[in-house]
Amino acid sequence: MPGFRVRTAREEDVEQLVEMGLCAYPDSGGFEVRRRNLMQNSFGNLNDVRVIEKDGRIAGQAALYSIELWLGGRRVPSAAVASVSVAPGERREGISRALLEQLHAEVDAQKAALTLLYPFREGFYARLGYATTAPLVTIRVATGAFAHAPFLADAALGFAFRTLEGPLVAEARLLYEEVAATQAGRMVRTEARWLRLFSREARHWMAAVGTSGRVEGYVSFSYDVPVSHGRQTLVVHELTARDGRARRALLFALGKQRDQVDDVELTAAHGDPLLFAFYDAPGSRRGIAAIEHPLGTLGAGPMVRLADAARALTLRGYPVDGELDIVVSETSATSKTLHLVVRNGAGQASSDGERPAGADRAGKRPVIELLLSTLGSIVAAGLQPSDAAELGLLRGQVTAVAMADSLFAGPRFQCLDPF
């Protein structure tokens, strides 16, 4: 767009960028906190920040971090957009759109599959091709409810609960990678990210150690006490367990803090069976006429945009083998067909004219039709194809939707490392 130029941020820009960020996100910490976060954080540094100039003056900024996410058992190169902000006097001039278009071009040049961001306004980003991933459910469970869940006490037999320190830390990090490969949306953590997590003074780490002496799970949590000597909530930031029994054992250990803690706050992906686990979860908290037993809140996760549909389909993993034709539209006037062939859990996707090896001839595969943004949510383990069909966002015969459901089956998206 005439008059706009995007470049990498420089040290002499920092003071102005911090001030701009404070205007856009006034609840995100003071000047020094934001300055340090711009210069160096666990996802990147100032070299990852882009500024957009309008007629030679800085009008907006955003960070673009290279990340990897686990999807379908494979590490998928992706990009994270953060801290998009525009100077107060430059708003409503198309600056954010121009900046994001440049960032999208960079992501494509890096051969990443997905771009993710946490939106301030979802509608704006939807117009740029982003779609929601899976919603997250945050529940608040009275610690007394843990005592009345016998399946937790049974699971805890044979476990010892220890502070996560020393050699246990290395075991926990290996366990994270093992578990992340079975989930959707967990980030491949760098050394800087681990150091940042462990350096937070308010966070506490506890491991569940099995009879073999091996770490079978761990939990990271903090205590929230809004009023001195008031009701205390234990907030779980991460719970990683090798299997369901280790997960239940850790929940039992958290419930043992009921002499100190009134509630335990847990966040899970939509559809997690944990949401059905507790009786009388609100404890002494009372509901209202419309909701007698409030359990928690439902919130949106990050939004996702496909950098390249064929690339994203090829890079992620799949639980079953199969073939599918995907007719993708970016507008009502244009569309293209992608041929997806999955063998041994690995996908190969090509567009018209590029036939993957071993594929059946055209016309024999089941076909679904959808917008590119909807496909982005499905690829990122957000919407299931049958859910998209129910909402009118996907069309296809019953057999085609069933095939798509089986190919994209698995845990819903949940990122534990917001950026």
Q: What does it look like?
A:
This protein has 419 residues and is of the alpha+beta class. It has three domains: 4-112, 3-Layer(aba) Sandwich (Aminopeptidase), CATH 3.40.630.30; 136-299, Aminopeptidase (3-Layer(aba) Sandwich); 307-407, Nonspecific Lipid-transfer Protein, Chain A. It contains 13 helices and 19 strands. It has helices spanning 14-24, 31-39, 95-109, 122-126, 143-147, 150-156, 167-180, 191-198, 244-255, 309-315, 372-379, 385-390, 398-407; strands at 4-8, 49-54, 57-71, 74-86, 114-117, 131-132, 136-142, 160-163, 204-209, 215-224, 233-241, 263-269, 296-299, 303-306, 322-329, 335-343, 346-351, 367-371, 394-396. The strands form three sheets. The chain has a seven-stranded mixed beta sheet, sandwiched between helices. Strands 8-9-10-11-12-7-13 form a seven-stranded mixed beta sheet, sandwiched between helices. Helix 1 crosses helix 2 and helix 6 (150-156) packs across helix 9. The protein is globular and about 60 Å long.
